[in-house]
Amino acid sequence: MPEAVLTLRLNPKTGERTLSIHYESDPDAMSYEHEDDHRAFVEQLLGRPLTEVADKLEVQREPPHPLIEERRHESIQRKQASMATDEEDSESLDKSLGESS
């Protein structure tokens, strides 16, 4: 049975709203076949166009297309590398602030 999970996230720093829609469909269904119907359903559920609800829209489908899954994996790796860099910068700043006091 198909399923959709909606998540609305607010970035407190930028105020950007991101709407994530995660679809799980039957294994024999083509994920792109009913994309317009899915969009219309979500807009009807929310009572307004998606462009009014969020600044950014993320759509995830299960089972995902192999290319989409590959890009998602690359994106996760970039985010993890960025987070590691941010942590190193924070630790370096903490050390330099500690030395100056």
Total number of distinct structural domains? 2
Identify low-pLDDT runs. Answer: none
The structural class is alpha+beta
Cα shape: elongated
Please tally the β strands and state the result: 3
Quick one: biggest sheet? 3 strands, mixed
| Element string (H = helix, E = strand) | EEHHEH
Number of helices: 3
How big a fraction of the residues is strand?
A: 15-25%
| Gap between N and C termini | 62 Å
Mean of residue pLDDT values:
76
The Rg value, from CA coordinates, equals 19 Å
Helix content: 40-55%
**Order of strands, widest sheet:** 1-2-3
Description:
The chain has a three-stranded mixed beta sheet with strand order 1-2-3. With 101 residues, it is α+β, with helices and mostly antiparallel strands. The protein contains three helices and three strands; from the N terminus they run ββααβα. The protein has helices at 35-46, 50-53, 66-100, and strands spanning 3-10, 17-24, 56-62. It has two domains: 1-63, no CATH class; 65-101. Helix content is 50%, strand content 23%. The longest helix has 35 residues, at 66-100. The protein is elongated.
